[in-house]
Amino acid sequence: MISIAPSILAADFSKLGELVHQVDLGGANRIHVDVMDGHFVPNLSMGPVVVKGLRPITKLPLEVHLMVDNPSRFVDSFLQAGADTLIVHFEVVSDPLPLIQEIRGRGRKVGLAINPGTSVDVLKDYITDIDLALCMTVWPGFGGQSFLPESPERIQKLRELIEKLNPRCELEVDGGVDLQTAPVCVRHGADVLVAGTAIFGSPKGPKLATEQLGRIRAEELE
Ligand SMILES: O=C(CO)[C@H](O)[C@H](O)COP(=O)(O)O
Ligand SMILES: [Fe+2]
């Protein structure tokens, strides 16, 4: 089963509630919230107040992609705000296990993300302890970038690792996912597709754009 995770980074924030409602109507499975600190990535985005604001207006799970240098500082505030999943970058944690245990101990899901320059193999020791592995398909920091050509091979390698060690772990892809690249991701083993620009920047509107990504996933599974 493939999941669609619209990234609100590309949304018009003056209409955020209505746009989240639209993607829900279009069949979105979760909402992806990109958190950037201006250190780990050269951009600033949103914090726990956005999660807190969204929590009462949607039943969709809220997953927080933490692109920050020191994720442990923010675990409590995002969980209190109502996040269902926290995704932490492997590059910033010397030992991910305490953080994984803390998040899981509080009844939420945890993901580990890797940048395009990080070997997929680094996740080997942690796959059994996480709910989600996020393969970045662009360099993190900005929406609207092009899908990196080395991504399919990396996705496939990660899928092999997951099948071997923990088939219940989800394989998410993030960055440059659209109607052209989504089928490639699914064919190589992705089961969660994050899409920002392709959904919120679509001239067809976010509901139809989400539906279209959903149809692609169905075709890929036939
Ligand atoms: O983590 C991210 C950027 O660092 C975003 O989730 C990602 O870029 C989604 O945006 P788009 O679909 O526009 O590429
Ligand atoms: Fe993201």
TrEMBL record:
CDD domains, per database record: RPE
Cofactor: how and how many bound: Binds 1 divalent metal cation per subunit.
The UniProt record lists the keyword Ribonucleoprotein: no
Keyword check for Zinc: yes
EC number(s) from the headed UniProt entry: 5.1.3.1
Cofactor: Zn(2+); Mn(2+); Co(2+); Fe(2+)
Active-site residues, as the UniProt record annotates them: D34, D174
A Pfam family this chain is assigned to: Ribul_P_3_epim
GO biological process: pentose catabolic process; pentose-phosphate shunt
Entry's Gene Ontology molecular function annotations: D-ribulose-phosphate 3-epimerase activity; metal ion binding
Organism domain of life: Bacteria
Catalyzed reaction equations: D-ribulose 5-phosphate = D-xylulose 5-phosphate
PANTHER family in the cross-refs: RIBULOSE-5-PHOSPHATE-3-EPIMERASE
Family according to the record: Belongs to the ribulose-phosphate 3-epimerase family.
Record's function text: Catalyzes the reversible epimerization of D-ribulose 5-phosphate to D-xylulose 5-phosphate.
NCBIfam families assigned to the protein according to its UniProt record, in alphabetical order: PRK05581.1-4, rpe
Protein name listed in UniProt: Ribulose-phosphate 3-epimerase
Organism, scientific name: Telmatocola sphagniphila
